[in-house]
Amino acid sequence: MGELRLIPDKFQNKQRKDFNTETTCIELTHCGNFVIIGYSSGDLEKFNIQSGIHRTTYGPPAHTAPVRGVAIDNLNQFVVSGDGDGIVKFWNFKENVAHPIHKIALSSGVSMFRSHRESAMVCIALEDFTISILDCDTKAIIRRFEGHTARINDATFSPDSRWLVTASMDSTIKIWDIPSSYMVDHFKVERPCVSLNMSPTGDFLATSHVNHLGVYLWANKKLFNHISLRSINPYSEAPYIDLPS
């Protein structure tokens, strides 16, 4: 454990001090053999996990702004990266990595990526508090959600990729129905949620919150009762709900 240091030759610093470049995002391949790391310098590098050997440098460099998000498809065919200037690029995973195969310019800088590999969709949280859904198969933005009024901390897809759940520093958690492009539920909590994830069967949502050490579980009522979901104005006041006890 901890024997390998994944540092490209150009970032080597024998004294381990005065680092000018920081790691800003990281993504592991589905097979578990490789990892791709994005840096504040705009560089995008691929390493072998088992040996720690540096395998690929994408672009010269990949971006001109800090890399904020990285996603990889299930079959290791392509890599998607996004930067602080709002530029999203597609790269071949193995060969011809000097230039991207496709580019998309977004309305604001990228804050983070969250991917659902089975459906080839990527949730892109932007610095203007909006959310874009990227379809990696068509290489196009297919949905855009807005309603949060502060930085988006985390997002997760439901197992069937029908819903997207997002959490923001405005202390709200919102649920978006991707096929209909509607927000179907939202609520406000005591402390902003900083991390969340859904269970593999979609029956529970786990959240963690600012200044709270515990992990809180929320039940998905739609699996236990017949609930008719309707469109909700994303800018309407979210009802306050106490954290589970």
UniProtKB/TrEMBL annotation:
One of its GO terms (cellular component) is Pwp2p-containing subcomplex of 90S preribosome. Pfam families: Beta-prop_WDR36-Utp21_2nd (PF25168). SUPFAM superfamilies: WD40 repeat-like. Gene3D superfamilies: YVTN repeat-like/Quinoprotein amine dehydrogenase (2.130.10.10). WD repeats lie at residues 60-94, 145-186. Keywords: Repeat, WD repeat. GO terms for biological process: rRNA processing. Signal peptide: none annotated. PANTHER family: WD REPEAT-CONTAINING PROTEIN 36. This is Uncharacterized protein. The lineage of its organism: Eukaryota, Metazoa, Ecdysozoa, Arthropoda, Hexapoda.
